[in-house]
Design goal:
ten-stranded mixed β-sheet; binds pyridoxal-5'-phosphate; Rossmann fold; six-stranded parallel β-sheet
Length: about 850
């Protein structure tokens, strides 16, 4: 193998827009040549001097180069077509690793593997070097990533906008069983997947004041900002699967403006100037690690405004031809608001139309109401973002004026319709008066949005009935549902190649883009040979996971154990504590001699969960899980029948290993609290059976797979409401259930804290006296369901059949279907030519 290529480069020296479309290296030799060229030209090294990171970057660059030509072509085509497109606005994109997904999309996996082997490189070693861009917290950010994958695969004209956080979600480690957060410096070794365009920066303003002025006898307002920052776009390619399409994800980075610096530099205060620069650049420095519990911090509002203002300006500048008639905007764009984080886009859009484009207020509002749609992701009141009027007025004074006017006109319309019902007016006002005067962003989004959607049938129903009932009455037809989905490319095809191969053998390859075809597996569920092959794939996936956990964390997963998995953010509403009580009960039954270890179904309980750094109870629960694991895993009386494994730093990369190996999927939130869940879908599509409550998308999973293939337990949402209203008295459940009493007493006794009764006392008192999420009320039902799981698992062949039926019946949960629903119900965008 030559160590260097000839110095004549085939790279075009000018803009690729003018270059002929390069052909992909459809041969191993072609790939080798380009790879070596990239080592030389991109990294300045030879094959023999290249570090592993050089090799990874050269490989990524080689793959990227093939996407670029298609990408540029698609950007041109989208602009030329003048078709309506989707601007997906999301503060989070939990992308996961890029290399494999792009190899798959371009059909280069085999060629790249062989080419690197020819250079003496194991491609798996380079795969392992990629640091995943963790620019999201959990389900919401991962949903955005699945959606842009589907948008590209379905050729929907679209662009994703977000923030290029320098530090994504923290890296979790455990010290003495307790979570310790490390910064996620994902950019340290460089990211080969991004293109920076500092020359295309937008100026984003903050602060200052507003003033009125006379314009031809009309009094107008304008904003005189106090300071500004530059928003520098970083472009990422989003490759469609086997369709040659490449969409754009544009993430913004905050950089200090020259003008701003100069003013202070000229004043002679160098240190102050540098500090000011740091202040500006802090805006895109770090992702807030709160999931479902926003903190209302000033920097977070800065982040939100920063990215939506840059995105709107970018869309108007680049997607529209000069002189475009802005009244036609609803024919060209729909801004989809992924939760309330981007909702400040609404007053910004109004400000641009009215103040900058000199449009009349009513006309601008008419347009705005057609150009936005809002997705709500929660039912927890504490997750509904509000911004104090004081803060919003200080940071964005003109926007606050605009919000007040929107609210005045909205409340006038409400009065006209319902009369002077002051209670109703107060309940519907975008401005809350207590505990402090603040702006309810979900209400603003609901008033402005053409449509408002929940993310699963039950969630959308509760949204209309419980969260926003007055709005549902006021705006008939505005509320709709789009049940979430996950991309089958990443979470089945890539994460589970064994199962993907088995499905393709049975049904052909079309399922990857038409997941309802999995229905065809129903008949194979009866086929003994297919079942045997499925069982073999599952066993192989368990061995892979076992190897990963051994290498990563030094764990030994016992052979033959059921893999019982609960991976998701740590939150009390998700009820990891219920899982802990099940484990403690199983353990206590053995050590108290009530059950013989040898009669216990072997189980490995696998957890993955990050807690928000300021969420004290969540961090205590993490500590308890690790403490229980320490005791259970090392008690000889257990004879290894129960194992508790908690690999730290659950992320997309780990999800891709854990989910294909799982037997049992734990989806045990209190009914009425989990909006949808998407982890539940990933597990079912990989042939795990679900033990779950009637909550979120679990409801739809159960309806599809059938009661026989799903372990249902717990109260329904109306039962939860009923018990809560009647008065939930957890101590009564504790008194009445011996297993529960023993489990709680064991934790309280210090059995998992070296006899120290204080460590987990706050958890115990919370469960007994103060638990909004009613863990004890569902305990008995959960334990009975787990006993049914054990019985079912004893019949491996029946279990396998149920697993296959889960896969066959869950094609509905493709994010391609979600996107189709968005198009039909909300966006009304045509596919690209
Ligand atoms: C899918 C996914 C989630 C969401 O899981 P839920 O169980 O729906 O909360 C969170 N984190 C990662 C890494 C995921 O892949």
């Amino acid at each position: 193998m030559p160590d260097q290529i000839s110095p004549v480069s085939s790279k075009p020296s000018h803009a690729l827009a003018l270059a002929p479309v390069p052909t992909p290296p459809s041969t191993v030799d072609g790939f080798v040549k380009q790879f070596l060229e990239n080592l030389n030209l991109e990294r300045g090294v030879t094959l023999s001097t290249a570090s592993p990171n050089d090799r990874y970057i050269a490989l990524a660059t080689t793959v990227r180069d093939f996407l670029v030509a298609r990408w540029l072509e698609d950007i041109r085509r989208q602009k030329e077509a003048q078709a309506k497109g989707v601007c997906y606005l999301s503060a989070e994109y939990l992308l996961g690793r890029q290399l494999d997904n792009n190899l798959l999309a371009t059909r280069l996996t085999d060629i790249a593997t062989e080419a690197l082997a020819a250079c003496g490189i194991d491609i798996d070693e380079l795969r392992a070097l990629e640091v995943e861009p963790g620019l999201g917290n959990g389900g919401l950010g991962r949903l955005a990533a699945c959606f842009i994958d589907s948008l590209a695969t379905m050729s929907v004209p679209s662009i994703g906008y977000g923030i290029r956080y320098e530090y994504g979600i923290f890296r979790q480690t455990f010290v003495d069983g307790q979570q310790v957060e490390q910064p996620d410096a994902w950019l340290t070794l460089g990211s080969p997947w991004e293109f920076a365009h500092p020359e295309a920066a937008q100026t984003i303003s903050f602060g200052g004041y507003t003033e009125t002025f006379d314009e031809g006898g009309v009094t107008r307002s304008r904003w005189v900002p106090g300071w500004n920052v530059q928003a520098v776009p970083y472009n990422y390619m989003v490759s469609g699967y086997h369709n040659g399409r490449v969409n754009t994800l544009r993430l913004w980075r905050a950089v200090a403006t020259d003008a701003f610096d100069l003013r202070i530099f000229n004043s002679g205060d160098y240190e102050k100037a540098v500090r000011a620069q740091t202040y500006a650049e802090n805006i895109s420095k770090v992702l807030y690690p709160e999931d479902s519990t926003p903190q209302g911090k000033e920097l977070r509002l800065q982040q939100q405004y920063f990215f939506v203002a840059a995105s709107i300006r970018d869309f108007l500048d680049h997607m529209l031809t000069p002189g475009f008639d802005l009244s036609k905007l609803p024919d060209r764009v729909i801004f989809q608001l992924n939760d309330t984080h981007p909702v400040i886009a609404v007053p910004e859009f109004m400000r641009v139309l009215v103040d900058e484009e000199h449009m009349e207020w009513d006309a601008a509002w008419e347009i705005t109401q057609q150009c936005f749609a809002y997705t709500c992701h929660t039912l927890l009141p504490e997750a509904l973002e509000v911004w104090s009027v004081e803060l919003l007025g200080r940071l964005l004074p003109r926007h606050l004026e605009i919000i007040y006017r929107i609210n005045d006109e909205f409340l006038a319309a409400v009065r006209e319709r319902f009369g002077d019902d002051e209670m109703r007016i107060r309940n519907m006002s975008i401005i809350a008066e207590s505990p402090e005067r603040s702006v309810r962003m979900a209400y603003l989004a609901t008033v402005a949005g053409a449509k408002v959607n929940g993310v699963a049938e039950l969630h959308s129903q509760l949204l209309r009935e419980k969260v926003l009932p007055d709005f549902d009455e006021f705006y008939p037809g505005k509320f709709t549902n789009v049940t979430n989905g996950v991309t089958p490319r990443r979470f089945l095809r890539l994460a589970n190649p064994g199962l993907a191969g088995l499905i393709t053998d049975a049904l052909g390859a079309g399922w990857t883009v038409d997941l309802e075809r999995l229905r065809g597996l129903e008949s194979f569920a009866e086929d003994p040979e297919f079942r045997a092959r499925f069982a073999e794939v599952k066993a192989a996936n368990k061995r892979v996971l076992s190897d990963v956990l051994r290498a990563r964390d030094g764990f030994e997963v016992s052979d033959g154990h059921m893999l019982d998995v609960m991976v998701k953010r740590l939150h009390e509403y998700k009820r990891q504590m219920l899982k802990v009580l099940h484990i403690v009960t199983s353990y206590e039954r053995i050590v108290s001699g009530r059950v013989r270890a040898e009669d216990v179904q072997g189980r490995a309980f696998i957890f993955g969960a990050k807690a928000a750094p300021g969420y004290v109870m969540a961090k205590r629960i993490i500590h308890l899980i690790n403490a229980v694991g320490e005791v259970v895993n090392n008690d000889p009386r257990v004879e290894g029948r129960l194992q508790v494994l908690f690999p730290p730093n659950y992320n997309v990369t780990l999800a891709e290993r854990v989910i294909p190996a799982a037997d049992l999927s734990e989806q045990i939130s209190l009914a009425g609290k989990e909006a949808s869940g998407t982890g539940n879908m990933k597990f079912a599509l990989n042939g795990a059976l679900t033990i779950g409550t009637d909550d979120g998308a679990n409801v739809e999973i159960r309806e599809l797979v059938g009661d026989d293939n799903f372990f249902l337990f717990g109260m329904t949402e109306p039962e939860v409401e009923e018990l809560w209203t009647r008065g939930y008295k957890p101590a009564e459940f504790y008194q009445q259930d011996e297993d529960l009493r023993r489990a709680i007493d064991l934790i309280a006794s210090g059995a998992f804290s070296n006899g120290d009764r204080t460590v987990f006392e706050p958890i115990v008192s919370n469960l007994l006296y103060d638990d909004r999420f009613m863990v004890l009320a569902d305990y008995a039902s959960y334990i009975r369901a787990q006993d049914r799981v054990d019985a079912a698992y004893a019949d491996q062949d029946a279990w396998t059949k149920a697993a296959i039926l889960n896969i066959a019946r869950c094609g509905f949960f493709s994010s391609d279907r979600s996107i189709r629903d968005y198009i039909d119900r909300i966006w009304h965008t045509p596919p690209m030519l």
